[in-house]
Amino acid sequence: xxxxxxxxxxxxxxxxxxxxxxxxxxxxxxxxxxxxxxxxxxxxxxxxxxxxxxxxxxxxxxxxxxxxxxxxxxxxxxxxxxxxxxxxx
Length: 89
Fold this sequence. Notes:
The chain is built from four helices and no strands. The protein is mainly alpha-helical. The protein has two domains: 36 residues; 42 residues. The chain is elongated.
């Protein structure tokens, strides 16, 4: 019974930590200080990658080599540029 009470307190403490962490992240996100990992190709590189792909002269494999990124990164970048139409810079 004593161990059950200790386990209950430990679970309660873990819930408090989880709640405080979530609140802290929400505050940081609201202040714009929590943005996550930035994409590897810069905005300029992303626009250039899209332009080169649209010309039809370069395959995805060529773009991988030119920009030193993986195939999934090329596809993600193409999709991101297509969604925004034009990147923000």
